[in-house]
Amino acid sequence: MKIVVDAMGSDRAPAVEVEGVMQAVEEFGYDVALVGDEALLKEALRKYKDYSDKISIVHAPERIAMNEPAALSVRRKRHSSIVIGMEMLKRDEADGFVSAGNTGAVVCAATLSLRLLPGIERPGIAIVIPTLTGASVMIDVGANIDPKPMHLFQYGIMADAYARYILHKENPSVGLLNVGEEESKGTDFAKEAHTLLSESKLNFKGNMEGRDIYAGSVDIIICDGFVGNVILKVSESVIDTIVKLLKNEIKANIIATLGAALASTAFNELKKKMDYSEYGGAPLLGVDGRCIISHGSSNPKAIKNAIRVAAEFKTQDVNRHIVEELESY
Amino acid sequence: MKIVVDAMGSDRAPAVEVEGVMQAVEEFGYDVALVGDEALLKEALRKYKDYSDKISIVHAPERIAMNEPAALSVRRKRHSSIVIGMEMLKRDEADGFVSAGNTGAVVCAATLSLRLLPGIERPGIAIVIPTLTGASVMIDVGANIDPKPMHLFQYGIMADAYARYILHKENPSVGLLNVGEEESKGTDFAKEAHTLLSESKLNFKGNMEGRDIYAGSVDIIICDGFVGNVILKVSESVIDTIVKLLKNEIKANIIATLGAALASTAFNELKKKMDYSEYGGAPLLGVDGRCIISHGSSNPKAIKNAIRVAAEFKTQDVNRHIVEELESY
Fold it and tell me: Quick check: helix, strand or coil at residue A30?
């Protein structure tokens, strides 16, 4: 098993990537190719045990920054870590690719280099979110901000395979995010997507509302990439705001400060439950390859788990399941 | 000042509405017409001081339930509290209307009975949300789930008047919710709305992301009604989920339980800050009248404050400001 890791993606690259790769090599024994600035990577690797039999460096003189326009940067920076890593995947020199870099650029490079799976018209990013009852998959969270109803049906097929073969959910239930539960609710777009999902072989439970997401009412939440992107960012922001407001309140009150110190065990347990890094990253589903996109603020554990998930996609042959399922329609 | 209150709207109608009306009459001295089932209302009023000089009952034999399809129920239930109340407003028998009932039905009845203000093509619901720096207005949160870019420009003009004359914000800043901050981001719809807002006289700050909402980066957040509706519901759900998870963690740990008891002062202060009932309800902007929509789970305080806001819309002549501003384009 060999995974390519974009070493220049995260906010603290390449230190976080190198540390995550070391953990993955020690824990799983995979081979890893680190793509990035050779000098920086050699320097970063120096403080770890020598794994030169397992870890190789592939020099990439260019780097695509977080805010660069996706399509343009992929076309212009042919020697960036994202483009070089993706090309290795295309040439079958590796089994999967992990990047914590510019999401748009990864989507664009993957679509251009790897092409889409037969029957898939657009890729989708699937993310695991923690819920009251465990964890659910939300797709799409930003690969495609202006999809057609048919794309949402395809997201359903892809997420179903992800949930079954990677998250080991049996007959995963599927909900369509809408502004009301009744079949007649929503835009024409939502109604058409509802019809396609109803007619599918998926375990479709109909429309669901924003308030149902974290309650864990379904295993798979389907939405367009614009809405999914906004939901993720709003959710993070609500949590940050609560923590900040609580901190201010607590500072203003000595009894509360003592109380908060005592309650901190509970907060820490909670934090662990909400820890996105457990899931390691979000697969870009629908491309003919295995790409895992990690958060820009990933820690080494998130990178390690993203490498694990990329390998599982290969072992479980998820893409074959997607193609076969689509062929059955 | 006379306000019509739909007495049959909220989850605990008419008790909550009657209690809220009593508070409003005692605190502000307004006249109020309660529209709903006469027998129920007479019964509910019996336990309060006699304000029959201030409070009148208008009998409405029908009631539109929360889940009824909006347009159909408004057409069929001509004797419902929502339709009868709105008709009173139309005939100038009152200065404003408050309902905690079926939002879609209120929007539909208002649009049909009152008609739109000159220059407005679609109404929008504006809601006040608490932020780290105070409070912001978000529009639209569900009146119109499939708007045109021009409608978003009109939301900007309407929310600007609301923020200036009711919330007393000077030169309120405006942001367009999008998936990135750069001008080039988003769907064609978002780009067109960006252009219209850029060319307006509003204090437009450009695109903003989901994570900026609760940070309070702008005074007015503009989005389409589908996204706004999802954001509201997701936000409520994130808070509920955190509280539930924390409660479970805390129960499992005796030290944490003690800590939580001590910290409860801080939690209560925080809760007060997040208390939507302070703002009383969300105005339906753009109709030729004053309609305030309250949450179905409103408490009496929320109803009282909704009545206050309806009266302020009259006193401040907000609709005239909206029309004059639009005429200047």
Answer: coil
| Minimal C-alpha gap between B29 and chain A (Å) | 36
* Residue range B40-54: mean pLDDT, rounded: 96
ipTM over 0.95: no
Nearest C-alpha neighbor of A222 from the set A252, A251, A253, A189: A189
* Interface mutation vs chain B, best among A245, A270, A271, most B CBs within 10 Å: A245
Contact flag A226-B227 (C-beta cutoff 8 Å): yes
Question: Which residues neighbour B207 within 8 Å (Cβ) at sequence distance 6 or greater?
Answer: B175, B176, B177, B178, B180, B181, B182, B183, B185, B186, B190, B194
The domains of chain B are located at 1-120+286-317, 124-279
Nearest-CA distance from A129 to chain B in Å?
12
pLDDT in tens, A51-110: 999 999 999 999 999 989 999 999 999 999 999 999 999 999 999 999 999 999 999 999
Return the C-alpha torsion angle B125, B224, B317, B174, nearest 10.
130
**Strands A124-131 and A96-99, bridge-based pairing:** unpaired
Q: Which residue has tokens 């439950």?
A: A273
A245 falls in which pLDDT band (50, 70, 90)? confident
Question: Does domain A1-120+286-316 bear CATH number 3.40.718.10?
Answer: yes
Question: Two tokens at A45?
Answer: 């690797």
The torsion defined by the Cα of A26, A28, A31 and A34, in degrees rounded to 10, comes to -70
Q: pTM for this structure? A: 0.92
Q: How confident is the model at residue A143 (pLDDT cuts 50, 70, 90)?
A: very high
CATH 3.40.718.10 describes domain B1-120+286-317: yes
Q: Looking at the domain that runs over A122-278, which CATH code has it been given?
A: 3.40.718.10
Cα–Cα distance measured from residue B27 to residue B303, given in angstroms and rounded to the nearest whole number: 13
**Closest C-alpha among A292, A295, A293 to residue A276:** A295
Q: Which residues of A touch B271 (CB under 8 A)?
A: none
> Do the domains spanning A1-120+286-316 and A122-278 agree at the CATH topology level?
yes
Is residue B244's pLDDT more than 90?
A: no
CATH of B124-279, one of 3.40.718.10, 3.30.565.10, 3.30.870.10, 3.90.1150.10: 3.40.718.10
Closest chain A residue to B132, measured at CA: A241
User: What local confidence, expressed as pLDDT, does residue A184 receive?
Assistant: 83
pLDDT confidence band for A11 (50 / 70 / 90): very high
Beta bridge partners of A36: A59
Quickly state the pLDDT bin for A238 (edges 50, 70, 90).
confident
Beta bridge partners of A282: A293
* pLDDT at A165 (0 to 100): 96
Q: How far apart are the CA of B314 and the nearest CA of chain A, in angstroms?
A: 31
pLDDT band at B164 (very low <50, low <70, confident <90, very high): very high
